[in-house]
Amino acid sequence: MADKIFEIIKAEEKRQSEGLELIPSENYVSNAVLRAMGSVLTNKYSEGYPGKRYYGGNENIDEIETLAIERAKQLFHADHANVQPHSGANANEAVYFAWCQPGDTILAMSLPAGGHLTHGSPVTRSAKIYNFVGYGVTDDGDIDYDELEQLAKEHHPRVILVGYSAFMKIPDFDRVKQIADMVSQEADQEILLMADMAHVAGLIAGGVHPNPLEHGFHVMTSTTHKTLRGPRGGLIVSMGKVGNPLKKCDRTLENIPTLIDRAVFPGTQGGPLEHVIAAKAVAFEEDLQPEFQDYARMIVENAHVLAEELKRNGFILQGNGTENHLILVNVKESFGIDGKLYEYALDRVGLTLNANALPNDKGAAFRPSGVRLGTPAMTTRGLGVDEMIKIAEWMRRVADLCVKAENEDGLDQYENELKEIREEVRELALGFPIPGLDNN
Description:
Blueprint (H helix, E strand, L loop, with lengths): L1 H17 L1 E2 L9 H7 L10 E2 L2 E2 L5 H18 L3 E3 L5 H12 L5 E5 L15 H5 L1 E5 L9 H11 L3 E5 L9 H15 L4 E5 L4 H5 L13 E5 L10 E5 L17 H13 L5 H14 L2 H23 L3 E2 L8 E5 H5 L3 H10 L2 E2 L1 E3 L13 E5 L1 H5 L4 H21 L9 H16 L10
Parallel strand pairs: 1-13, 5-6, 5-7, 7-8, 8-9
Antiparallel strand pairs: 2-3, 4-10, 9-10, 11-12, 12-15, 14-15
Helix pairs in contact: 2-10, 3-10, 4-9, 6-7, 11-15, 13-15, 15-16
């Protein structure tokens, strides 16, 4: 059946090449990252850490993982990095496990406000182990810091988490640090400050977004894809004293790097995916180059232009715009359509994004009022300001067709109009080839 699989892979290459990826959590990797992921490293078992493995034959693996660690530390100005988490969700679970006991309170942005599933959604495993308390956002889309402070005083959390999957502001890390210090003194217990920066890690690495570790946070988790343009995987960087992960240590903030190592392996994972870790190391080296800073700046510029053009075309945006790479559009308020219909219609013309609930959304997850989009993948392909203007115009034309159609089935009567837009999208997309497809 391998031949059939490669046929499908080719079909996916065609889909990606002929469309435009607007989902803010997706991106394209380089040919070098793809080569590392497809290497013989996938054959090797390497439980443990460099110099402390449970299997022989790991001398090359140790060197690769050490390079990944050192590059991640340099990228985020951290004391320590653990590059073994299989995903951002695994990274978050490991930090909770490293610091908290069952029943401990974790204060995090609620899912309806823009948080992530792993920040306390009742459907997750961690929500059954720890007591998550959710804070929200203000009418202008920013974190409600007054509510965060009030909840911290009330619940005395062990962790205050700043992180999100649908949030377009730059957090005030200093304000959160002040709240944590005040509550920590009142409760006479250490509070771990954790930032889940999966969406904006590349912007941090590129110098266009504040680094929470430089504002008093102890731990930052991230995925390694999204804005970092690496393989799908997770990462934890932290501040503190680095010890031997094979030896127990006191549960103090100073020891958080060692506690995290122990929580990743053997606490929550088995053998690391060293072919993915090699690809992470390659991506981190790419992220350290001056060109990556230019890329990060262009992501933000493209997002600002796209947001302004969408507003000019009649779209109402959550927070009236964006301060990072991500845009939330209220299509229900803008045009009276739901996000799922709009996602489906845009898919038909080769513009891929995702329906997304907004704060206090009446439509919930199945028929949300909004859509979420962003600029990292388009910027990787070289699209700029002129293309953002075209995309906003296409989005308005599709929205108008959705209003007329009223539902998914009704779009069929506008097949000719959709095909016309589809051809325009395809023509533009093919002018900006996807990186990483050469010589594969």
